[in-house]
């Protein structure tokens, strides 16, 4: 994911990884910020429900990661 935050980056910047699995017929989502992003001087929370800490954050509700889902095809 490439996100413009506060300035124009000359190269795409990896912010994190969004993944999903289907378990018992229900899609489960998880997101983890990239560690380099978390230590970047430009670090910024990209969704009100995605807190700035390392490790996976989970949701079965697309509304939880609502801002992030706006960028998906």
Descriptive key words:
73 residues, alpha+beta, 3-stranded antiparallel sheet
Structure characterization notes:
- This is HipA N-terminal subdomain 1 domain-containing protein.
- With 73 residues, the protein is of the alpha+beta class.
- The chain has one domain (16-69).
- Helices cover 11% and strands 27% of the residues.
- It is built from two helices and three strands.
- It has helices spanning 35-38, 66-69, and strands at 16-23, 26-33, 56-59.
- Strands 1-2-3 form a three-stranded antiparallel sheet.
- Strand 1 (16-23) and strand 2 form a beta hairpin.
- The longest helix has 4 residues, at 35-38.
- The radius of gyration is 13 Å and the shape is elongated.
- The two termini are 12 Å apart.
Rg, Cα atoms, Å: 13 Å
The topology string of helices and strands comes to EEHEH
Alpha-beta classification: alpha+beta
What's the mean pLDDT score?
79
Low-confidence stretches: 1-6
- Taken together, the total number of domains comes to 1
Strand content: 25-35%
Q: Strand count, sense and closure of the main sheet?
A: 3 strands, antiparallel
Number of helices: 2
What's the helical proportion of residues?
A: 10-25%
- Morphology: elongated
What is the strand arrangement across the widest sheet? 1-2-3
What is the first-to-last residue Cα distance? 12 Å
Number of strands: 3
